[in-house]
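Hi all, posting the design record for the shared folder.

TITLE: backbone redesign
STEP: 1 of 1
STRUCTURE INPUT:
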């Protein structure tokens, strides 16, 4: 049947093993250049949509605003008709990205005073009310009492049932809205209806929800901000007296936007700010700032992904060259015979091209089709990448065949008995690679990996160049110690170590091809692992600082006994109360504590030192709290404090970690001034956000706190395991309601604390650092690098075994005639491979560990660590993983050797390869 096949197909069937190996590599390469970018784009797009979805409406939405005073005779209905017109006049691609849009006319709550016949509208701190006419809002609500406003003879309004219950408003209540400043008129508004939102979480209610706000005077406590909804004629009539503001609000549908749209969207935002759809309109949004931050992170992680992909693709390319070289080496006798019969090198290349062309393009096509199944957007360079893979795999064997027959040789030689000195050309090429690597490192320090213009192929390939340069240097240094070990082994009685080390020292299988491929693969895997552990360790430090314990509870003020109630809950081992005050004044110290010159504002933390030390010890957080904060007992005079470097500079203290006795200042805690002296300067502290730059930590137990004005805790650090967050929330919520009810002299069920209780555990906070933004793409990058490098390293070992299989087979056949056992034959392979693996692991490992340090800030790792600078961290498990890889590689090599020996039939090797 074979005789009926065409010549190329018949030869392809004969050499199906080598072509199948190349086809598998081509399939994997095509799958990588097709599927990996699609997955990366999918993760990037999902991260973008996640971030945009979580933004508050003030930041996320595009809000065009315009204000009109009463003299301009406003007409809300005419303004509402401009909603579609303004959207269509936005620069592209914004009109197509808008998913929802709203129009509203608003009056107040700023510069608006409120009075009326309801009890809540009278007193020192009346509620803040806004009169609002929002087009189509009646379709989003359900009337539960009264009717929807129809403003004809006067202004009518409806209010939510929640606001009506809290503010004491009823159907028929009259509310008087009066202007302040230049607008001195007033408008009576009659409440005619009470409603419930159909979907309270719908974005139409974003600017209308009931909110608790502080009173102008802190001693009056808090009040509420609510909206009175009227129809468009009603808001128009009120606007002619009080003035009116218009909002045309557009929501970008995150599902319509991809990360590739970010540059065009940012350009459109800038154009809208310069030239709004109509004169007098002002664009208010923070979406462009959020997209800019996301884009910066995306460029950084794509640069890291490009580095990993460059390492994997370089390893794949090296394996393709090794596989093609292996195929050419097996057919050397065939090509020599063709040359002896007068065939030109071009004819040999054409002959092998016809063989590869009937197999390899289909393998690459299969990889491309499989890659297209990956979710996500295709990369713009996908067709070019697949075409390069197709050409590379198809032309590898023909090109190497042509190059191998440029100088025809008809006499076989034993190359392992001759030590060749490298040619000047080869030395020049190696020095050129080394120069490119060093120059690339210098350029990376100056330019960085992440650039606005995209990924620079040369800079991305610098880690690969460094790995190849290290492999070349190792190749020059390894033979000498191997020969010395061989001389020592020659004195032993067993022959296996001597023969194995002798072959390794003569360059088999420690040749530049397998060694370079192995070093690049191992360097890529180790580099990815080091970067992974570096980011993970930095995120652990961020969580240790921002949470400071196993859990952190945030709420309003409560009594000191709240800590005891929390400590009594199941699973709680220790509790430490905190009093956290932001925006407190800082003044230079004076003898009477009144304070001297103004030093700005700071965040003040009052910590109970002894209980904090117990919580940190139980939680395993190494915060390095100074003894001055944990020493028990009250201090006469300024208390010892820990301050941030910025505060230390302001008060004249020393550097980080240094004390400066005598340097101090005065700050406030809950309305009372306290003097402190700098005991320690530190850039972070448990419970302080990592981006905080001005903070002061005071010891609670040392402060001279009077009994008539105690300090109230508003946060708690908790240590333990197995506790229920719901129980913690309920306990603190009940405590802060009891405290507020006592202060306001109101029933507990009627008070609403200004701050809702939030429980943030260490685990949840740590997990949140990995879910946001581009972190899924970052995890995909790390996973791809480790898995790909491991698999390709094992393949490289297999190629090293296959490359020397014929020579090793002839040697084993001869040695078996002298009594060599099968076990000793396998030991011979181990002695040959251990130098290759040892050199590759050592060289690649050193390069992988050194790369993050060499590249330094060019990697931009601090953008993924949550705010703290990334410190290069080497996970001890990495050493175990590398040793395990060596063991697996040796086992795989022995398995490949066993298969090859069975196929070659060692008894026939001497006859088949006798000429060698």
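Okay, here is what came back for every position:
SEQUENCE:
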């Amino acid at each position: 049947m074979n005789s009926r096949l065409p010549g190329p197909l018949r030869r392809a069937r004969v050499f199906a093993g080598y072509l199948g190996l190349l086809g598998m590599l081509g399939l994997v390469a095509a799958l990588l250049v097709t599927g990996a970018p699609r997955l990366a784009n999918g993760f990037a797009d999902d991260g973008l949509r996640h971030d945009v979805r979580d933004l508050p409406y003030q930041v996320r939405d595009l809000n065009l605003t315009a204000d009109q005073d009463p003299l301009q005779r406003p007409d809300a209905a005419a303004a509402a008709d401009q909603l579609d017109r303004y959207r269509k006049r936005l620069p592209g691609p914004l009109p197509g990205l808008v998913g929802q849009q709203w129009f509203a006319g608003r009056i107040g709550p700023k510069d608006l005073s409120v009075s009326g016949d309801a009890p809540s509208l009278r007193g020192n701190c009346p509620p803040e009310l806004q009169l609002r006419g929002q087009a189509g809002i009646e379709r989003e609500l359900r009337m539960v009492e009264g009717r929807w406003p129809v403003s004809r003879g006067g202004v009518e309004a409806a209010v939510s049932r929640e606001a009506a219950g809290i503010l004491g408003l009823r159907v028929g209540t009259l509310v008087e809205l009066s202007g302040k400043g230049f607008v001195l008129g007033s408008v009576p508004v009659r409440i005619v209806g009470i409603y419930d939102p159909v979907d309270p979480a719908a974005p139409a209610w974003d600017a209308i929800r009931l909110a608790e706000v502080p009173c102008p005077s802190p001693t009056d406590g808090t009040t509420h901000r609510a909206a009175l909804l009227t129809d468009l004629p009603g808001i128009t009539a009120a606007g002619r007296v009080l003035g009116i503001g218009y909002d045309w609000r557009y929501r970008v549908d995150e599902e319509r936007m991809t990360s590739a749209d970010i540059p065009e969207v940012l350009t459109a935002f800038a154009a809208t700010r310069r030239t709004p759809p109509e004169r007098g309109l002002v664009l208010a949004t923070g979406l462009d700032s959020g997209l800019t931050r996301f884009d910066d992170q995306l460029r950084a992680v794509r640069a890291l992904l490009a580095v990993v992909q460059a390492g994997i693709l370089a390893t794949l390319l090296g394996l393709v060259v090794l596989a093609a070289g292996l195929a050419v080496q097996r057919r050397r006798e065939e090509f020599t015979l063709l040359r002896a019969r007068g065939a030109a090198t071009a004819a040999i290349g054409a002959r092998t091209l016809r063989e590869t062309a009937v197999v390899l393009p289909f393998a690459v096509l299969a990889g491309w089709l499989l890659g297209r199944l990956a979710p996500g957007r295709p990369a713009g360079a996908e067709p070019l990448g697949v075409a390069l893979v197709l050409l590379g795999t198809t032309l590898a064997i023909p090109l190497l065949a042509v190059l191998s027959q440029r100088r025809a040789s008809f006499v076989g030689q034993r190359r392992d008995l001759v030590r060749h000195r490298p040619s000047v050309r080869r030395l020049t090429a190696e020095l050129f690679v080394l120069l490119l690597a060093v120059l690339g490192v210098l350029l990376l320090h100056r330019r960085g990996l992440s650039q606005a213009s995209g990924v620079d192929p040369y800079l991305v390939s610098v880690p690969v160049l460094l790995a190849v340069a290290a492999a070349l240097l190792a190749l020059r240094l390894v033979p000498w110690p191997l020969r010395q070990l061989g001389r020592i082994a020659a004195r032993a009685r067993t022959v296996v170590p001597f023969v194995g080390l002798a072959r390794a020292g003569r360059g088999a299988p420690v040749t530049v091809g397998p060694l370079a491929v192995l070093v690049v693969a191992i360097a890529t895997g180790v580099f990815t692992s080091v970067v992974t552990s570096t980011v993970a360790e930095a995120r652990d430090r961020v969580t240790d600082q921002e949470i400071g314990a196993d859990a952190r509870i945030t709420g309003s003020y409560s009594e000191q006994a709240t800590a005891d109630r929390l400590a009594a809950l199941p699973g709680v081992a220790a509790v430490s109360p905190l009093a956290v005050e932001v925006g407190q004044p800082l003044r230079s110290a004076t003898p009477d504590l009144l304070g001297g010159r103004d030093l700005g504002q700071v965040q003040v933390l009052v910590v109970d030192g002894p209980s904090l030390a117990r919580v940190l010890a139980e939680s395993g957080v190494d915060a390095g709290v100074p003894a001055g904060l944990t020493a028990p007992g009250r201090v006469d005079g300024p208390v010892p404090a820990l301050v941030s470097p910025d505060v230390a500079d302001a008060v004249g203290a020393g550097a980080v970690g240094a004390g400066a006795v005598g340097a101090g200042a005065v700050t406030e805690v809950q309305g009372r001034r306290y003097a402190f002296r700098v005991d320690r300067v530190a850039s972070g502290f448990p419970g302080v956000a990592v981006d905080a730059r001005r903070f002061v930590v005071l010891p609670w137990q040392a402060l001279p706190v009077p009994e008539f004005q105690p300090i109230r805790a508003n946060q708690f650090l908790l240590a333990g395991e197995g506790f229920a967050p719901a129980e913690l929330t309920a306990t603190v919520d009940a405590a802060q309601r009891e405290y507020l009810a006592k202060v306001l002299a109101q029933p507990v069920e009627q008070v609403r604390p200004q701050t809702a209780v939030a429980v943030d555990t260490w685990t949840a906070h740590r997990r949140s650092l990995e879910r946001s933004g581009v972190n899924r793409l970052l995890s995909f990058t790390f996973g791809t690098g480790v898995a790909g490098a491991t698999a390709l390293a094992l393949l490289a070992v297999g190629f090293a075994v296959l490359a020397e299989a014929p020579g090793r087979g002839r040697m084993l056949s001869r040695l078996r005639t002298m009594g060599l056992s099968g076990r000793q034959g396998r030991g011979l392979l181990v002695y040959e491979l251990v130098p290759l693996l040892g050199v590759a692991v050592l060289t690649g490992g050193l390069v992988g560990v050194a790369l993050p340090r060499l590249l330094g800030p060019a990697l931009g790792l601090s953008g993924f660590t949550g705010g703290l600078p990334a410190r290069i961290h080497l996970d001890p498990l990495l050493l175990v993983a590398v040793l395990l890889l060596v063991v697996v590689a040796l086992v795989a090599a022995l398995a490949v050797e066993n298969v090859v020996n069975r196929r070659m039939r060692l008894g026939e090797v001497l006859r088949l390869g006798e000429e060698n």
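COMMENT: Residues 287-330 form the longest helix (44 residues).
Let me know if anyone wants the other runs.
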